[in-house]
Sequence to fold (295 residues):
Amino acid sequence: MVYIIDASMYVFRAWFSIDPESMIDDQLNPVNALYGFTRFLGDFLEKKTPEYVAVAFDQSLKTCFRNEIYPEYKANREPAPEDLKRQFARCRAVTRALGLMECAEETYEADDLIGTIATRMHRQGMPATILSRDKDLVQLLQEGDEMWDYASDTHTGYHEVADSYGIRPEQMVDYLALAGDSVDNIPGVKGVGPKTARALLAHFGTFDKLYENLDQVASLNLRGAATLGARLARHHDDAVLSRKLTKIHCDVPVTTTKKTITRRMPDLDALYSLYDEAGFGTPLRRQAQRLVDSF
Fold:
């Protein structure tokens, strides 16, 4: 089993859950996200003692290949404040010092890195547990995989996706192509919401089958079915664009082998130096020592 961590989600969670003014270093820079993320990683390692771990970070919201396809992609999101940006580099340093593979790419998002690692490990017969609550990542799940929302300790396996989302993992890309995603500013088909998208995929199975049989849409027991086929045809280009944006790229040029994702002994000197710079006290040091002792 390889554990793949959607790092940015947990960094942001720490940033919003701990008051930045309550934790600052000697240079008066906030270290709240760094502390929360470091504690999360340490707790996770103590709880699971994993052998294989990879931690994927987002490098930038504006340099992803999806922005070249669609400049409005995620344009509705506010850029991360400078006080948070500074902490991302420190979070990556702590990740490395804890003995974990960490990765980020300017052209690709953390989702693509997660997809690449999961896909390559699948080829070697290794299932994946993805630590995240991002529904986009559901499309990566195969038999034996699961999504783990660490904060709520909620596990969603491959066969449980249908109960949680009303679609199979393989349908998530097509679902988002139809329904869109306001969080990422993905248009989808105007007027097609989640309920309609799920119903269409339940009947036709896939995006391609749907568009090959638009003449059958009018006969479905759906509200507005009489005009839905024409609507889908009219917004076909938006749907195709949305599918390109929501599909996770699983061949990022990053070195990923069993060796690179194998957990290493934490580097206590490096960790203590990082903790000194941040002004962290004894709890994290004690945890780091326990991780070394139990390695």
